[in-house]
Amino acid sequence: MSIRVRIAALFVSLFCLFTPVKFFAQESAAATEAASDDTWYYGAVIKSVSFKGLKSVSSKELDGVVSSYYGKKFSDELFGDMMDRIYAMDLFEDINPQALPGDVKRSTVSIIFSVKEKPSVAKIRILGNKQIRTTEIKEALSSKEKDIYVPSKISVDERAIRDHYLEKGFTNATVRSSVKETDKGVEITYTINEGRSTVIAHINFSGNKVISSKTLKKKLKLKEVGILNKGAFQESMLEADKQAILSYYANEGYIDVSIVDVPLSTEFNEKKNRDELTITFVITEGSQYTYEGISFVGNHIFDDEELQSKIKLRKGSIFNQTKFSEGCMAVADLYYENGYTANHFQQMPQKDPEKKTIFFQFIITENVRSHVENVIIKGNTKTKDHVIRREIPIESGDIFSKAKVTSGLRNLYNLQYFSAVVPDVVPGSEENLVDLIVSVEEQSTTSIEFGVTFSGVSDPDSLPFALFVKWQDSNVRGTGRSLSANSTISTSNQTLGLSYGSNWFNDLPISTSISTEISHASLASLRNKVDRNGLIDDDSYYMNYEQWKWSSGFSLGRRWTPDFAIISWSGGINGSLKNNVYDEDIWTPVDSAVSDYANTWGWQNSVWTAVSIDDRDINYDPSKGWFASQRFTWYGLTPLETEFFLRTDTKLEKYFTLLKLPITETWDFKLIFMAYSGLSLQFPKPGSGIGDSSRLYIDGMFNARGWTSIYNKVRGKAMWSNILELRMPLIPGILAVDFFGDAAVITKEPDQLQDISLSDFYCSTGPGLRFTIPQFPLRLLFANTFRFDEDKNLEWDKNWKFVLSFNITNK
């Protein structure tokens, strides 16, 4: 901080101390009356801090500075510290504070700063650059046009430009800057002398006998110039490569390895007008050591056996530095997860040069558990603080728990309100107190969707698509409530629906939802036809009818969030009025669910309950974890209805990350394996039946994908559906490539499942694209269907089928 700023801050603090009434200007009559007590705001809790007069400075940038003072009592020392931090940002020429009562009793205070910003950056010029584009250089700068001019950023940006040239191999580049003040603001000019480029021509090794030069080269980030590599040289990468070599040797047991020297030699290539560099790593390998074990000293909270279980490196094996360090981190993490954040750990190696063994003494200094002093939320402009805080199962005064913090992050991601959630733990005001800071980056929760959707298939040859429009806000006014309206229009189906829901009720994780929908559909159903021989054919002829339906539903649920999973219970009731319109004098439908509502309005109601356990890291796009749920639904609640039966749905999911390879700094190549199994059963009330349209079926869209032609032909009271998927995220959070395999079976009665064989399954496989954007949950699949005959011979369909499906998150 400059002397001028320190003097100004000291002056403000002294002025505040001796003349508080004059220092705080009041804006309203009520505030003036409150100010009659010269010291009313001393000891008052700081409710909010806001800024007036901002033009170029972002309020988010200031929130990160002042939000840590929320909830603390006002004092001269605290206010002086706040002013020091604001002045240290070097953004304002003038700052005038005001204090207003935060409530009628004046127990809280709201502080308002009226500020005058410093001049802004009117223009940034880049001169002298020929090899690198101007826009690319400007992206590397911390100062942007229209930002507040901060002189200290000039030297930072000069270094950023030089670093950018170094990354491109221009080791001789120089940068100088000039600043000019105008009426419109400050103009900054960076003049660059690019110099000659430098490329790495050769990388050599000396002294390596155990490990080949070819193997060591693969461990380096620096690469020799070639067709696929630019061969750019960076001093920082050279240091990283030295550590990579040492780490590789240490993981092979050579703990005494050292890099004695790294001489660099340069030759000028006149033909290519560049400097060509030769790098030589001079290595002393030393001897290979065996791991002899570890002992723990000072541990009272956890016994030796529990700590030893965290060390995966086994006694007698070749010493591996990475595995050993991971074990030590796991020991420290065990304490950390249980709230012991102030412990100290020290590794004391004991080498035996003659036996070539190494033993460790792990000294632990245990301290009392840390407590959370404050939970601070940053970055949210729409979502209310309490909507975020209630998802984090830790609050001020609690013992710190890493597991609870992790659980809170999972809850916040599952809301789908945020594109990023970053936690940070910083020391509190006293020893063994910590502040938990949760920074979020909000994403849009309001969407208007247009397109096509699956409309149901009553005729196997009809196109199963319909135009739809849907408006949805899953975070209405930042309160965590959801509201949506949708409409579907096609030649055979029209709907209009509304729904409203909330995940919390009176600060309890109790979810409620209510929905209603009106629909009209042109459908087809099998009909009875009397043949000339007097027999009834109920499997060849269809009749058309129109169905009008009004339905509504209400649900209630409760969530529990222990460390290991999310446990949910929910229940609800659904009711509908429907009317099937057709000429009864001409048509006799086979399905009783059609004839029972012929040309008259009738009720169709159900009540349901469900329980689930969710261990997935992110429920809408998991990479690990499992999910299990059980749902019971009873259809038929009044004597006016015609169908009375129980339906059970059991679902199991499991996810594994099979492979994770870092490719770039921001992208990993991942392979995720998913397995799903679902069992649905129907049990009619004795003396009652289940209409054909109410029975279970394979839709070819969500189960046995590709089997769309059996929608009306294969129905029953039991269905077992299985899915295997190999998922490869291309753009995390946006797009993934999947390879799937489905197998589903339908039986007429539940007890027939015990007699099924391989030939009863409807199978399919193929690739697909899956959009993982919550607002665009679309799947584009290519499916090839197949079955097994009685002799277990595979019978493939010759044609691949395009399937449009959606991502349905099981909850």
UniProtKB/TrEMBL annotation:
Q: Which GO terms describe its cellular component?
A: cell outer membrane
Domain POTRA positions: 119-195, 198-286, 370-443
Q: Which UniProt keywords apply?
A: Cell outer membrane, Membrane, Repeat, Signal, Transmembrane, Transmembrane beta strand
Locations listed in the record: Membrane
Protein transport in keyword set: no
One Pfam assignment: Omp85
Predominant place of localization: membrane
Q: Which GO terms describe its biological process?
A: membrane assembly
Segment forming the signal sequence? 1-25
This protein is called Outer membrane protein assembly factor BamA
What taxonomic lineage is listed for the species of origin?
Bacteria, Pseudomonadati, Spirochaetota, Spirochaetia, Spirochaetales
